[in-house]
């Protein structure tokens, strides 16, 4: 009969064998997902890659995260993405402003960043091209500072810490209706940051959870603007700070309200647009352009989506946004002509 020590050794060996097999299976699964990734990738997995390899934590208490300078994706959700040395999906524009250059700094989130949209098709670059084609004596630089998952607090903090270094002649805030939310610091655990298997399993768990457990639909946006809510107060305080920043420099500011494009006909968020426009415009005397009327309500909203699974704004939608902004920018510039253009 085996003594207790032999039994314990046997149990330990079985446990170690099980753990070794489990580690082997996990490593094999990780390797298989990486090998076959191009064929199994989806929105959630691509967002994981973007967060894991395109973003990094930030020491600025006002920023939840930032782009990793120099990050490069040959293909991220179908398009090439290059992050410049300053952490922007942008040309290497200098902080200094040469004569006759008119700088427009665009603040925003993943829509402004151009998720799933080629660099040249983002509304910032389309606007830049259209302005320079006008040949009005200025050379325009439209600097896209959009970062995925940014909210208004991030955007205002970025303006203070980095955006003002460009000494912009104009600021545009691309406001999406979830921007009143409050970003918490992103926790970059190594497993979450590097494991494709983790992202794959989490993606499928989220899909199952969505199908079998009732969750809030995208209509949760309305809750962000409830009276006296933390998020509404967050919006108000950041609008006040934004106004103070641009006011101190006499920099014109344009706020564009970017619509959610899940459903355009019988648009469910007109009340939110009106509230946000009132907070920026009536209360703070900031120019607001609601982009909803520029979209065709009679077409299938999916025609404006990046993909069938992802209602981010595609190239067609970005083109509409740029065309809507263009006359506003020209009007602003005529009213706030830089000193060098008046010589």
What does this entry look like structurally?
This protein is an alpha/beta fold and 343 residues long. Helices cover 43% and strands 15% of the residues. The chain has eleven helices and eleven strands. The strands form four sheets. Strands 6-5-7-8-9 form a five-stranded parallel β-sheet, with helices on both faces. Strands 1-2 form a two-stranded antiparallel sheet. Strands 3-4 form a two-stranded antiparallel sheet. α1 (4-35) packs across α8 (196-212) and α3 crosses α8 (196-212). Residues 212-217 have low confidence and may be disordered.
Essential attributes:
single chain; 343 residues; alpha/beta; Rossmann fold; 2 domains; two-stranded antiparallel ribbon; 11 helices; 11 strands; elongated
Order of helices and strands: HHHEEEEEHHEHEHHHEHEEEH
Number of β-strand runs: 11
Report the mean per-residue pLDDT as an integer.
87
Structural class: alpha/beta
Largest sheet: 5 strands, parallel
Tell me the overall shape. Answer: elongated
CATH topology of the largest domain: Rossmann fold
Low-confidence stretches: 212-217
Amino- and carboxy-terminal Cα gap: 103 Å
